[in-house]
Amino acid sequence: MKSSTICKEWLDSLPPTQGYLKNEQSIGREFLLEKGMPSKKDEAWRLSNFNKLNSFLSLPTIIDSEDIKSEFKSIFPEKDENRERIIINPNKNPILNINLPNGIEKLSNREIEENLGQIVKSTNIKNDISVCLNQLTSLELLALKVKRNFNHSLEIVIPSIEEKSISTRIFLLIEEGAKLDLLQIFIGNNNSAQNHLIEIKLESKVELTHGLISLGEEKDSSSICTLAVEQSEKSKYSLHSIHHGWDYARFEPRIIQSKGEASTMIKGLQVTKSKEQIATHSLIRFEGPNGKLDQLQKAVASEHSHCIFNGSIEVPQKAQKTEASQLSRNLLLSKRARIDTKPELEIVADDVRCTHGATVSQLQDEELFYLLSRGIDNKHANSLLLKGYYDEVISSFPKSAKKWNFIEKLIQDIKK
Amino acid sequence: MISSTSETILSIEDLHATVEDQEILHGVNLVVKEGEIHAIMGRNGSGKSTLSKVIAGHPSYKVLSGSIQFKGKDILELEPEERARIGIFLGFQYPVEIPGVSNLEFLRVATNSRRKELLKSELDTFEFEDLVKERLKIVEMDPAFLERSVNEGFSGGEKKRNEILQMALLEPIISILDETDSGLDIDALRIVASGINKLSQPNSATILITHYQRLLNEITPDFVHIMADGKIIKTGNKELAIDLEKSGYDFIDKDTKEKEMAK
Fold it and tell me: What is the ipTM of this complex?
């Protein structure tokens, strides 16, 4: 079926615009009607597997209340005492079920109106389909603020629903001087799709550590996630992400240092097997001087799978004295697997230090032989080496993230 | 420690082997018995390291003909990990750095693989920590090295101590130590050599591959072999190593020339 037909059918299948995000839904609808779905001609979507994207759209988005399983909670590891957990049900107001700790509040309607959509808009992505798909389908919004000078840990879990497509939208405002340790977990289900739009605004002197564990796990699960972060001066943002087990996943982190003078650290890992395709398209823009970026993106592809990384860094004239480094390191475990990695540095300012590098390699034979020569069997030696390879990214996750057993999942089903 | 009834541990016969299609070993013969210490000396490129890699089963080295028997059993069909588990240990000339893999975890997994073969119970983290702390003393190694990644950022001497620590944990029957003395200062050499001596058992054996007499001052070999052009061309006792240190390898060239003339 042609993608334009699929697009039309999908639009027709959606419920009428409704609720307090009605306006957003209309914007998304108009956009899609005008621009249509992306094609191979769109640079940002050129390598995307369109069959998989079409399957993403083929799942129904209307969710009956019986779809939401109350036993969700029981299958999750116990939550940390000092980390508030929010489990998002896509068609229920997520705020209703939780007791917000002192220092975290629901945003007022005025604050939502002033802020919602602004960060993502400022990223200026042409033909922003990922965002549009979410705008069209999100019915609820989780909008919170961490109040000035508070220090909190928060966990947001988003499970999928079998045979359904869900959309979630989150807005976080972190007020001046506050610290937040945020852990987000996305979990796939059989033949399911997730679509997330997360906007985070960091006021000055904010420190945000953001762990994102995105695990498809089940058969034919897909995920599209756009993360838009605006950093004010003297803020520190570190993002640690893992994508694994999705048949199709696309992650678009976009970070704007609105006045420069801030620091950003990104450590990402994507691991694919079978015929999966996982892509990360990152954008970091410095809108002022003295900004810092340290970005490491790792990928491991086995069997017939495909990993994609596209890393844009924009340093305009006003962003003098920017220090940015981007490194893409990739491990190809099979001759039939594929890795595409592309740095895109647009540097106009002349007094900056920007470095980038990309490597694609295989597991080192000498490292493997060293382990084998100590009596360690091949399978165990390979998993030790992979664990070592992942370590640079996963060692910086908060301890409580380990409860989600993602390390074991990353290693167990790797086949050459 | 050698007696006439000593059992043969390693027996190599007419071994020919290649790496990247180039024949390096041209018929090596060597018999090592229980309690023996053998030193193999020779110029760079004479085939010493190749021999050690072939015994350990490195996949890049192919055996063309000949045999290697360990305690009477042909090991050429065994995978490297199987050879290690039955008690063959290779101390690397250049121990490999493995970022992200904890040294402690690596040592525990390796030790348990060998213990399984010996029908001993596997050690959990706590039991292993007790064992490793005791064995660390043999090489006078700082426990801080256990917390680091395997060999990553270790100095040359620390890497070699880590090799001997592995030997101490795996309790091999035959240890082939490939230039364990290279890159060591005098103190580190003494510590490493004393570790090897402490680990030497009446029912085990050691092959030391070295360029220098100085290691052999610390560890007295029962046999000294000289390798040239992929063969053992001369075997003697410690005196041979002393002679070699004095006069160098020139006699090999003389011998070769004389042989060619005779032809």
Answer: 0.95
